[in-house]
Write a structure and sequence with these properties.
The chain is α+β, with helices and mostly antiparallel strands and about 350 residues long. Helices cover about 30% and strands about 20% of the residues. The chain is built from 9 helices and 15 strands. Strands 2-3-11-8-13-6-5-4 form an 8-stranded mixed β-sheet. The chain has a 5-stranded mixed β-sheet with strand order 1-10-9-12-7, with no helix packed on it. Helix 2 links the parallel strand 2 and strand 3. Helix 2 crosses helix 6 and helix 3 crosses helix 6. The longest helix is centred in the middle third of the chain and has 26 residues. It is globular, with a radius of gyration of 20 Å. It starts with 11 loop residues before the first helix and ends in a 13-residue tail after the last helix. About 35% of the residues are buried. The structure holds 2-oxoglutaric acid and fe (ii) ion. The site of fe (ii) ion has 3 residues, from loops. Belongs to the iron/ascorbate-dependent oxidoreductase family.
Length: about 350
């Protein structure tokens, strides 16, 4: 175990030792402790959309706002929203509870009953399960929580006397309930802007308890350069709403190049997931993104994933369809199988219909 590592940190260095050795990656000396991972990456502002325009008195302004959301989803697959209706104090509260739970000892977090949080098995995750190369390495830990674990149970004293996590459940519930309204609102706009007439589509497929909330923590990585906090991936959902702190590190692919997202304290980030790309027949883009580890600062983010139930069938809204239809359960299983076999997700390209 690395002598500098905190007892709450997962044993990254120990676990990735052989991978570092194989790739000749040696610890940086004190004179070279800056990472080069971000050095050549362009920093760009994502499209910024003011959601207060959705309730403007002028109908034209409301329509223009919807058009901007749809255009950003086609051209970038990513955008930022301000005046999104999530109170600042709720975001701060979420961050505070998240910091506390990650500060718990690693052995307790990874334990079978995960600090008595009564979450589904495998909710606490860290690192990459099967990295074959450096680009598949993730220097981060996460609680990936099915909202069903939080929504469907009566309030209980989950903390079992642990004051550090006593508010976590109610904070997650409040946060997720508020963010789910925003997620549904944006998803409904995207459905409407494709001219689809079934405007209840999202409500029929998704409910608050089919969604997921993921709390991410990226410990600093001072000793190695070229280390990723989260390996490149697309999200397996309709759309994701992300709240991040001000450290930065999120990058996405735009026009074939990695670009770095500049944090904006007023904004939430929205990105399109694979299910919207499949349903929209490739119109809305589920874009590859990653997080680079910071050499000095730890980083936190919270992601809300708008997901349907496992048996929901995803099929393009119009023919000829680029993808064969699949159930969300089938999609998730395929992703898990590919990660086990190849060390990374293959995703939607598995479901392409080759004409
Ligand atoms: O932490 C971030 O900025 C991104 C997180 C992310 O991509 C995810 O949880 O899927
Ligand atoms: Fe993601």
């Amino acid at each position: 175990m690395d002598r500098n590592a905190n007892i709450s940190d997962p044993p990254f260095e120990e676990t990735y030792k052989n991978l570092f050795l194989k790739h000749n990656i040696t610890p940086l000396t004190t004179t070279t402790t800056t990472t080069t991972t971000t050095a050549t990456i362009e920093v760009r502002d994502l499209p910024l959309i003011d959601l207060s325009r959705l309730v403007a008195t002028a109908a034209k302004e409301r329509e223009n706002c919807k058009r901007d959301i749809a255009n950003a989803s086609r051209e970038w697959g990513f955008f930022q929203v301000v005046n999104h209706g999530i109170p600042h104090r709720m975001l701060e509260e979420m961050n505070k509870e998240q910091v506390k739970v990650f500060r718990e000892p690693f052995n307790k977090k990874k334990g079978d009953n995960c600090m008595n949080l009564r979450l589904s098995p495998g909710s606490y995750r860290w690192g990459s399960p099967t990295p074959n190369c450096l680009s598949q390495l993730s220097w981060s830990e996460a609680f990936h929580i099915p909202m069903n674990d939080i929504c469907s149970n009566a309030p209980r004293n989950i903390a079992n006397g642990n004051p550090n996590i006593s508010n976590l459940c109610s904070t997650v519930k409040q946060f997720a309930t508020t963010v789910s309204e925003l997620a549904n609102k944006l998803a409904n706009i995207l459905v409407e802007k494709l001219g689809h007439d079934e405007l209840t589509f999202i409500e029929e497929k998704c409910s608050p308890n089919t969604c997921y909330l993921r709390m991410n923590r990226y410990p600093p990585c001072p000793k190695y350069s070229h280390v990723l906090g989260l390996m490149p991936h697309t999200d397996s959902d309709f759309l994701t709403i992300l709240y991040q702190d001000q450290v930065g590190g999120l990058q996405l692919v735009k026009d074939g190049r990695w670009i770095s997202v500049k944090p904006n304290p007023e904004a939430l980030i929205v990105n399109i997931g694979d299910l919207f790309q499949a349903w929209s027949n490739g119109v809305y883009k589920s874009v590859v993104h990653r997080v680079v580890a910071n050499p000095r600062f730890e980083r936190f983010s919270t992601a809300y994933f708008l997901c349907p139930s496992g048996d929901a069938v995803i099929q393009s809204y119009r023919e000829p369809s680029m993808y064969r239809k699949f159930s969300f359960g089938e999609y998730r299983q395929q992703v898990q199988q590919d990660v086990r076999e190849f060390g990374h997700k293959i995703g939607l390209s598995r479901f392409l219909i080759c004409n």
